[in-house]
Amino acid sequence: MKKESPYHYSEFTDPISCDFTTSNVAGNVDFHMHNSHEIYLLVDGHIQYFVENACYDMNPGSLILFSNREIHKAINTSNEPFTRLVIHVNPSYIRPYCTPLTNLLDCFHRDPGKNNLVLLSQADHELLISMAKNLEKAIKNRRPYGSDLTALTTIIQILILINQAWQNTGSVKTAPRPHRAQTIMNYIDDHLTEHLTLDSISLALSLDKYYLSHLFKSETESSIFQYIVVKRVALAKELLLKGHTVSEACHLSGFIDYSNFIRTFRQTTGCTPGQFKRLNP
Fold first, then answer.
1. What region holds the HTH araC/xylS-type domain (predicted)?
2. Do residues 200 and 124 both lie within one domain?
3. Could you give the CA distance from residue 248 to residue 193 in angstroms, rounded to a whole number?
4. What separation in angstroms does the CA of 219 have from each of 25, 49, 77, 147?
5. Which residue, 78, 107, 228, 273, has fewest beta-carbon neighbours within 10 Å?
6. pLDDT in tens, 137-184
7. Whether residue 9 has pLDDT greater than 60
């Protein structure tokens, strides 16, 4: 089950989910993050996918991965319908089934925005589609005998396949493409904890602030402010996981106002910073 937020977050309350969807818009049109890891296979159509400050052109058969640390968003530049397979996995559900030789979550343990795209052979692509259909059926038909174990064993097999493909994928062939907003994103990433305004960014980059804002919006279909906010919350999550207090995470992630930090963190992650610390000791 997915709980929608009015901001930039979708909370998945079930340990795994699997859906094939066809539409002409993405499920979440803004930069966002999840409490789960995400496997995204484009079955049909053509879209662009932003993850952190990188942009990937995706074609049928393209597979991209997002950890619960990475902000991302899809853009459909053609406005034509596209079909995607989306699988969400709660890492705490999978972790007990990892072994010293087989870390099923290895493909998600990367630096944010690095090596997200995975190349699949035709055989692996067909096998993934087949297993995903079985997984979707097992999740939706919870009552029949064995459906729970079918779902568990199928997601384990899917993760094994994806990790093998991820390990065999060369970083050169899946490098993100350059995009016009990248300089802006890079500056924001490098100065995220500083006091950032449209005026300060435009001054630093020697660009008119109205042109800067329009450029970012036209390229990403999101605002500069929205990108900054979600990046700062992602940083605050990392700080909390490393043992920092809520107050420390607030100021070290670039937030000035404590009340605004609490409110924004909750809108972006589905819980308050304090709740997040208690859930992730």
1. 182-279
2. no
3. 12
4. 16, 11, 10, 44
5. 78
6. 999 987 789 999 999 999 999 999 999 999 999 766 778 888 999 999
7. no
